[in-house]
UniProtKB/TrEMBL annotation:
The lineage of its organism: Eukaryota, Metazoa, Chordata, Craniata, Vertebrata. One of its GO terms (cellular component) is plasma membrane. It comes from Certhia familiaris. It is a multi-pass membrane protein. The gene is Slc2a9_1. It holds the Pfam family Sugar_tr. This is GTR9 protein. Residues 1-191 form the Major facilitator superfamily (MFS) profile domain. GO terms for biological process: D-glucose import; dehydroascorbic acid transport. The chain crosses the membrane at residues 6-24, 113-136, 143-165, 171-190. It is found in: Membrane.
């Protein structure tokens, strides 16, 4: 029944996808990135009601004034910045630990191929982090979340089908591996 357990994460993602459009965009994102003061106030009002959200808004305006002269860095500029090396090392250690996650065992592959699949899982995670960090400012968190959940749901359906049919068609085992990679990339870009 492990395939039902695997499908359960798709059900949770689908429920979140249904409710996500009813939530407002992040107020700091609207004010600091998009410079949409009216949208920020509207989102704060929707989040906190008619209560006291003006102090939060004032704090955001102060933060905007402080960061006004700072430039938003792209991925290459972040990689050249020495002050973020400890965080980058921590992130790389987490990516390398994905080799022990067990996702490669779900595809029912030969043991000699599993180390390569584990390496592919880590590379997929790295690709998703780099890709997401370069497009999040362009598309916004909401779009990436919705798109990520939709992609994840589609990939899980295809993964379930390929796992169910992998005993009849051996080539579907390799499709399962590719779908696992795509699922990790969709998760890293979206949720």
């Amino acid at each position: 029944m492990w395939n039902v357990l695997l499908s359960f994460s798709g059900l949770v993602a689908f429920i979140q996808l249904l409710f996500l459009p009813f939530f407002p965009e992040s107020p700091p994102y609207l004010l600091l990135q998009k410079e949409d003061k009216a949208g920020c106030l509207k989102a704060m009002k929707q989040l906190w009601g008619e209560g006291n959200y003006h102090t939060e808004f004032d704090d955001l305006m102060k933060e905007k004034a402080i960061t006004k002269g700072t430039k938003i860095m792209n991925v290459l500029e972040v990689l050249r910045e020495r002050s973020v090396y400890p965080q980058l090392c921590t992130m790389l250690l987490l990516l390398l630990s994905l080799q022990l996650c067990g996702l490669s065992a779900t595809a029912n592959l030969q043991e000699s191929i599993i180390p390569y699949v584990s390496l592919g899982v880590s590379i997929s995670e790295l690709i998703s982090i780099i890709f997401c960090s370069s497009i999040i400012d362009r598309f916004g968190r909401r779009m990436l979340l919705c798109g990520g959940y939709l992609l994840m749901a589609l990939i899980l359906v295809l993964l379930e089908m390929s796992l169910l049919l992998s005993d009849r068609f051996l080539w579907l085992r390799y499709c399962s591996v590719i779908l696992i990679f795509l699922f990790i990339i969709a998760y890293g870009i979206g949720p």
